[in-house]
Amino acid sequence: MLRKKHLIIGGATTAVIILAVAGVLLFPYFKSLAVYGSFSGDFTKPGQPVNVKLVLDNKIKSSANVGSAGGDVAVPAQNTKLSIPQGALIANENITAAKITSLQGLPSGWKLVDGYSFEPSGIIFGKPAIFSANSSVAGKEIYAFTIENGQLKRVPYFIKGNQAQVRMSGFSGVAFIQITGNVPYVTNNHSVEDRAVEIIGEGLSIDYYANPLDPKISDSQKARFLKILQIWYSNSVKLHLEDAAKDPAKIKDSGREYNHWLSSAILLGLDDQLGQQITEGKQLLAQDLKNALEDASKKCTAAGDATQIANMLQWESLAMVLGVENQPGLTQTDLNNYIQSCGKFELDFTSRFADNQGGQATASGKAELAIADDMTLQGSGTMKEDSMAYPGTSDTDGMIGMPFAFTIPKTPISINAGTSPSASIALRMNMDAIANAQDTLNKSCWWVVNWALAHQTDAVFGTSLTSNIRDWQYVGKNGIFAQKVFNRTVNVPLYPGKIDSITENTTFTLKPMSK
After folding, report:
1. What pLDDT is attached to residue 428?
2. What is the DSSP string of 16-52?
3. Tens digits of per-residue pLDDT, 348-376?
4. CA dihedral (54, 132, 50, 107) positive or negative
5. What does the mean pLDDT of the chain come to?
6. Structure pTM?
7. What span, in angstroms and rounded, lies between the C-alpha atoms of 76 and 311?
8. Is 487 buried (19+), middle (13-18) or exposed (0-12) by CB count in 10 A?
9. What Å distances lie between residue 307 and 290, 295, 421, 514, CA to CA?
């Protein structure tokens, strides 16, 4: 039989269990309430993704080459254009706009009103680009969407005069869609950024419907948008910027999001109220990029990983796009110092020539090269003919063992990092000193004679003995950065009616000089 004390203990135990279970069930609710406040329902509500396939009209398209000065990609017949402001791009891009004729996969009750696709994809704007269409595409029950990888994302649009405008932080498709009935959230509730933008777009639509002839953002909506932007910054932008400090691979996307958030604050006229967050975010972003530059420099100098030079250029370019290139550690001078501290190479070569008359000659050389501010490779070194044998001659007729200087004049070099590293090099090698010595000593360096014959197509016009050594192979292991190998037989004309066959075995090796 149960006693009273057992009932009391049992009751207390039951109460504890109930509270514990309730805590487990209520924890996500309290967490979302603390994070999102009164907007917890908006941010946590599951989305209903809409995936579409674009059908384009290639007869209605336009292209333009736009660079750092900015410019427009216009489709005049459609009264449509994409305006890219000065400073939005740091390099020239050939941009194409094509009209979207249909979106396959739209839900029932959804109808495409107008839309365009922009290429190339994956480019971030330093300043928001503006897509403008005739305001007739906007109105009640019409919403704006971007299309990224086939997925719709609802975004705000603004009415300016007779134009409906969508701000874009990068290339994607843009579509105005008429929707009858309730409009669900189409973004993933795990993305604070996407959901925040969608909530703002919904709020603007409400204001525009209230007075479509004179659309304005009400004070109550502005207050609401301010809270949305604060939530977006605290729970996504800031967290991603802090995370990127530990992983440089995340900098590009975290910088893109910060830029997107900032442009949204400016467009809504809320940048003054968000001044503290704007300053903090810019400082975090600058520190992320500085850390990435320093990390790339250390890897380059310590491990001789020259592909890190490409990473340094990438981080500096991103700093320029995102407007933090004047921050300490991110200036052009800082970048030059980083590159020059690690962009040092040793060039080695060994070479052998043999001809069909029984002659042969070998040579070897070594040089130290460095990358200059303008991303050109240059330097100097010494070489010598190691051996020579030719019918009817002796060693004393040649220049065996004599050291001669050679130079590498300014040579452009392009290094690409990433999952498939590569290098584009056209090394220019000047051996005029050897040619001059032959004239002075009245002797011949048989190796140089064969080199000149075999490399006639590589000769630099207007020089006596300068050759372009192109098409290097990136190696990236065993201490070798890149290599150029000639294993071939070349038929060369000696004089009218006389062809000589020369076999060449030459290897040039470019090695990073680690500290």
Report:
1. 84
2. HHHHHHHHHHHHHHHHHHHHHGGGHHHHHSPP---B-
3. 999 999 988 788 899 999 999 988 777 78
4. negative
5. 80
6. 0.67
7. 40
8. exposed
9. 18, 13, 7, 13
Report how far residue 217's alpha carbon sits from residue 365's, in angstroms, rounded to the nearest whole number.
73
Helices (H), 211-274: 219-232, 238-244, 251-267
Q: Among 95, 80, 57, 266, which residue's Cα sits nearest to residue 165? A: 80
Chain segment 231-266, per-residue pLDDT in tens: 999 999 999 999 999 898 888 888 888 988 998 898
What is residue 330's three-state secondary structure? coil
Read off the tokens for 214.
Answer: 């004179």
**Ranges assigned E (strand) in 343-463:** 344-355, 360-371, 376-389, 404-416, 422-425, 427-430
Which pLDDT tens digit goes with each residue over 293-345? 888 888 877 766 777 887 787 787 778 777 788 888 888 788 878 877 777 88
Among residues 122, 175, 119, 184, the alpha carbon closest in space to that of 146 is found at 175
Which residues, other chains included, contact 475 with Cβ-Cβ below 8 Å and sequence gap of 6+? Answer: 481, 482, 483
Q: Treating both helix axes as pointing N-terminal to C-terminal, what angle do 192-210 and 251-267 enclose, rounded to 10 degrees?
A: 20
pLDDT of 15 reads 33
Q: Give the H/E segment covering residue 494.
A: strand 480-495
